[in-house]
């Protein structure tokens, strides 16, 4: 089983190389990409089963033992992230294949899309499995390099302009992260996460806090945590629909994952918990207020993406087992639902020619299946019972109430308000774009929605519903993962059987 751990990184990279060779054979390109991501999904499920049953699964790359060599670690948190990210990337790939078959415009995938998309996937999985800070940095750089290509795919003026902002912000966050890596190594003499768990505890409080805040600054930019989130609503909406969807679903969550991993393994004790709570509350409220002011579906979903990052950071800031469990559950939920909504926005644009709600109307009558595909995940995002969004939010709010204190109670109120305003924003999209009389863009639809695009979106809608049906077992997995995160010893002992030094 240990030999399976590198496969989620290696298989997409091999697939990227093969699809680049097959640049003039689009059908074979598509086949290789689908097989690679389907393989990733199967491997991820096997790793999750093993990690849940027996503890973290570790591979020493090149045969060099930790802490000298590079290690890849699939504990319950990493394996769960692998499963949901593999499912989402596979569905988005199928969606993009359907879009590419349906049109030949600038928004459709081109020959370079498949190798770049697979490199992006390899970067995401490498970040989840990284057992040291530098390899985590490498994972971020791999996915960012691929994202620079994908966000400007087609080369339109709008994409180049917004893509430039994205590139500048990403490079800045990477410079901060690399600086933090250098400072951590200078202070401790190691970058291995398991070894750092012991050595950071021995540092003076001021040095330890400075390292923690530097890492939080880097990850906060990547996760779009307020006030470091202004770049996101302007960058994502202009990209092609499948690119926007996978960015929204996964790229910010890699930042959230890095915060969860470092805050629990490297910096337990909550030195920065107050700062994280304030940032979480502001992220929720400012993001959702931005959403209700939007008239374009993609920009509205971009602001809800920012807003709901606050729920996850709230759970991390509380730091209790229940709060961490709720945060992990909400990450899984939000990856699925937010990706689905951006795919739906792409379908709306395909069907009606625009995502500007001022030009939309009557979609519930013109395209009833599209209306269903929007309504279900929108209500899930808003937290309507009994969907997984409701269950995740209740878990986090209950953890806040149980924690006690003035600031957690403020965040409980902010979370409740954010949920209500999310419902308002989602209902506004429904009333304007789907329910009112047809407008200019929808009065004379000229296209039929490709079956593969509909099928891929429907698969993610079903996955979102499955999270509700399987909420009990999923919460058990997230609770076990939270316990391991707080204990730290399962991770440390798996990587360093002889104990940290």
Structure overview:
Helix content is 75%, strand content 2%. Helix 13 (321-352) runs antiparallel to helix 15. Strands 1-2 form a two-stranded antiparallel sheet. The chain has helices at 7-21, 26-54, 76-102, 113-129, 133-151, 157-188, 193-199, 205-223, 232-235, 241-265, 273-292, 297-318, 321-352, 363-366, 368-382, 388-403, 406-435, 451-469, 471-487, 489-495; strands at 57-60, 71-74. The relative contact order is 0.11.
Brief account:
It is found in: Cell membrane; Membrane. This is Na+/H+ antiporter subunit D. This protein has helices at 7-21, 26-54, 76-102, 113-129, 133-151, 157-188, 193-199, 205-223, 232-235, 241-265, 273-292, 297-318, 321-352, 363-366, 368-382, 388-403, 406-435, 451-469, 471-487, 489-495; strands spanning 57-60, 71-74.
Task: Give a topology summary.
Elements: H1 7-21, H2 26-54, E1 57-60, E2 71-74, H3 76-102, H4 113-129, H5 133-151, H6 157-188, H7 193-199, H8 205-223, H9 232-235, H10 241-265, H11 273-292, H12 297-318, H13 321-352, H14 363-366, H15 368-382, H16 388-403, H17 406-435, H18 451-469, H19 471-487, H20 489-495
Antiparallel strand pairs: 1-2
Helix pairs in contact: 1-2, 1-4, 2-3, 3-4, 3-10, 3-13, 3-18, 4-5, 5-6, 5-10, 6-8, 7-20, 8-10, 10-12, 10-13, 11-12, 11-17, 12-13, 12-16, 12-17, 13-15, 13-16, 13-18, 13-19, 15-17, 15-18, 16-17
């Amino acid at each position: 089983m240990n030999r399976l751990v590198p496969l989620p990184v290696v298989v997409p990279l091999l697939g990227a190389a093969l699809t680049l060779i097959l640049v003039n054979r689009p059908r074979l390109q598509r086949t290789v990409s689908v097989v690679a991501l389907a393989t990733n999904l199967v491997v991820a499920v096997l790793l999750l089963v093993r990690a849940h049953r027996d503890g973290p699964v570790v591979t020493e790359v090149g045969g060099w033992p930790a802490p000298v060599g590079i290690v890849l670690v699939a504990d319950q948190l990493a394996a769960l992230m692998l499963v949901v990210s593999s499912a989402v990337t596979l569905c988005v790939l199928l969606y993009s294949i359907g879009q590419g078959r349906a049109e030949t415009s600038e928004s459709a995938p081109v020959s370079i899309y498949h190798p770049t998309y697979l490199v992006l996937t390899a970067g995401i999985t490498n970040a989840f499995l990284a057992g040291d800070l530098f390899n985590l940095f490498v994972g971020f750089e791999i996915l960012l390099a691929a994202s620079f290509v994908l966000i400007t795919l087609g080369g339109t003026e709008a994409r180049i302009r917004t893509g430039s902002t994205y590139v500048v912000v990403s490079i800045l966050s990477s410079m901060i992260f690399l600086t933090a890596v250098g400072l951590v190594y200078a202070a401790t003499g190691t970058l291995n996460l398991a070894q750092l768990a012991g050595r950071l505890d021995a540092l003076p409080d001021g040095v330890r806090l400075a390292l923690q805040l530097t890492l939080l600054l880097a990850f906060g930019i990547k996760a779009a945590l307020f006030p470091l989130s202004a770049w996101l609503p302007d960058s994502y909406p202009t990209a092609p629909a499948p690119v926007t969807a996978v960015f929204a679903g996964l790229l910010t969550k890699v930042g959230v994952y890095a915060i969860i991993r470092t805050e629990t393994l490297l910096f337990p004790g909550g030195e920065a918990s107050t700062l994280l709570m304030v940032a979480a509350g502001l992220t929720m409220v400012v993001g959702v207020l931005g959403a209700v002011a939007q008239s374009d579906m993609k920009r509205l979903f971009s602001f809800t993406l920012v807003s709901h990052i606050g729920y996850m950071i709230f759970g991390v800031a509380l730091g209790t087992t229940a709060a961490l469990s709720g945060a992990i559950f909400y990450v899984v939920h939000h990856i699925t639902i937010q990706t689905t909504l951006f795919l739906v926005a792409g379908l709306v644009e395909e069907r009606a020619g625009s995502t500007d709600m001022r030009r939309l109307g009557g979609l519930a009558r013109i395209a009833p299946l599209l209306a269903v595909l929007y309504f279900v995940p929108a209500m899930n995002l808003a937290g309507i019972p009994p969907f997984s969004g409701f269950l995740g939010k209740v878990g986090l709010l209950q953890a806040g109430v149980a924690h006690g204190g003035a600031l957690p109670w403020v965040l409980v109120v902010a979370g409740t308000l954010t949920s209500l305003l999310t419902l308002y924003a989602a209902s506004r999209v429904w009333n304007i774009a789907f329910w009112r009389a047809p407008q200019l863009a929808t009065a004379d639809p000229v296209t039929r929605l490709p079956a593969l695009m509909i099928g891929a979106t429907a698969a993610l809608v079903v996955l979102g519903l499955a999270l509700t049906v399987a909420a009990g077992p999923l919460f058990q997995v997230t609770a076990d993962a939270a316990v391991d995160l707080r204990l730290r010893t399962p991770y440390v002992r798996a990587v360093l059987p002889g104990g940290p030094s």
